[in-house]
Amino acid sequence: MSEEEAYQTVLATLKKEAIYPYTEDEMQVVKSIESCINCGLCIQHCPVVAAVGLDRFSGPRSIAVELSRSPPEYWTTADVVYLCTGCGTCREVCPKDVDIPEIVNLIRARIFKHRPDLMPKQLHTADAIIVEHGLAFVPWEDPEEKAESRDMRLERLGLRYIPDQVVKGADVLFYPGCQAEERAQEVKESAKIILNHFKVKFTLLEELNCCGLPATLLGDDKTALELALKLKKKVKDLGVKMLVTTCAGCTSNLARIAERDAWGIPVYHMLEYLVEEIGIAKLSSAFKQSTEEEPLRVTLHDPCHLIKHTSRITMDYAGQILGLIPGVEVTQSYAHDSCCGGGGLVSYHAGDVARAVMKENLAAIEETGATRVVTPCPLCTAQLEDSLFRQGSSVEVDDMTVFIAQRLPQEG
């Protein structure tokens, strides 16, 4: 028997025992756990542990410990691993840089492949939508109804409509992401208004497909890779110089896959693009003067996918931009960088956990005395709106792209 035949025989035997050896890439992640010193900082700072306690969610360290055991053992983490929001706080505070969010993704991927029966049923539904439509949400069946919904939103916000355009060789590809394309259309439209105002030569995709982050969080790595490769081809065909998005999750994921798959162009969140490419000088003279007697008091919420998966400087830019807008007064919440609870697809199947994580944010927002929360992430916006509404709060929520667009002169 050859070495290859012997190896295949061993694999077959292990499979019968429900033992699936790690791939070479997986082993790199597994080895990172060996540096854990059991200091407990990840548990102390985990927003899910703080919200629901160790009885409901045993915390980041327990996930890492279970993974270090033989594969049949870590199936027992299935009821825990899907409650991780992937916020990245644990990785940020870890003195040994153990990448627990990546470990969570690895476990979910192995469960998806080998024990899909352990996944929450709502996540099976989410995966089916992505596989069928190439988007994280079921698209509108009737284009006219979608347009009517868009126009109603724009009218309510006092924004004008700029037609979509697909142009080869543009400087910027604006990528709205699934939520702004199918649900929060005002975010997509506001981004077009901003780019048009600054005379940016931009294009959209002729047909949007998901960046693949939701599929990765589900553990469906095959679909995530297929979506990434489709997107790369579309980007290459358009011949753009850079990609700009308004979604925090898309920003972190697109930056990752663009580097991994050698797209050859940078990825910016709209805030980064405005400060680094348009420039503070142009921004400072762009906004309308306020006609209100009293300043609008706002507070910022920091999306985890920007500050913990991309760069904290993005939210520094957010503060700079708000400081340029006449009639706006910014007050900082003590929990501005706390997770909204919606990440990691937790809100899909464990809404009570997501809402519990949000509680600290709500208390901190009310304490600021602000009348509006602004955040550069459609998911955070939706989570904040839902939670504040449930609480009976009068505080309003704006996606920051919309907030900026409303304060630019409405030309034409």
What structural keywords apply?
4-stranded parallel beta sheet; Rossmann fold; 3 domains; 8 strands; alpha/beta; 412 residues; Fumarate Reductase Iron-sulfur Protein, Chain B, domain 2; single chain
Describe this structure in words.
With 412 residues, the chain is an alpha/beta fold. The chain folds into 3 domains: 3-119, Alpha-helical ferredoxin (Fumarate Reductase Iron-sulfur Protein, Chain B, domain 2); 145-280, Rossmann fold (3-Layer(aba) Sandwich); 287-406, Rossmann fold, CATH 3.40.50. The protein has 24 helices and 8 strands. It has helices at residues 3-16, 24-32, 41-45, 47-52, 60-67, 71-74, 78-81, 89-93, 100-114, 121-133, 143-157, 177-182, 185-197, 213-218, 221-238, 248-260, 270-278, 280-284, 304-307, 313-324, 346-349, 351-368, 378-391, 400-406, and strands at 172-175, 202-203, 242-245, 267-269, 296-300, 328-330, 372-375, 396-399. Helix 5 (60-67) crosses helix 9 (100-114) and helix 13 (185-197) crosses helix 24. The relative contact order is 0.11.
Low-confidence stretches: none
**Number of structurally distinct domains:** 3
Cross-sheet strand order for the largest sheet = 2-1-3-4
| CATH fold name of the largest domain | Rossmann fold
- Tell me what portion of residues adopts beta-strand conformation: 5-15%
The number of E-state strands comes to 8
Number of helices: 24
Q: What is the C-level CATH assignment of the largest domain?
A: Alpha Beta
Please state the average pLDDT score.
Answer: 93
Radius of gyration: 22 Å
Report the sheet with the most strands, covering strand number, pairing sense and barrel closure: 4 strands, parallel
Q: How far apart lie the N and C ends?
A: 77 Å
Shape by Cα distribution:
globular
Helix-and-strand structural type: alpha/beta
The CATH architecture assignment of the largest domain turns out to be 3-Layer(aba) Sandwich
Q: Percent range for helical residues?
A: 55-70%
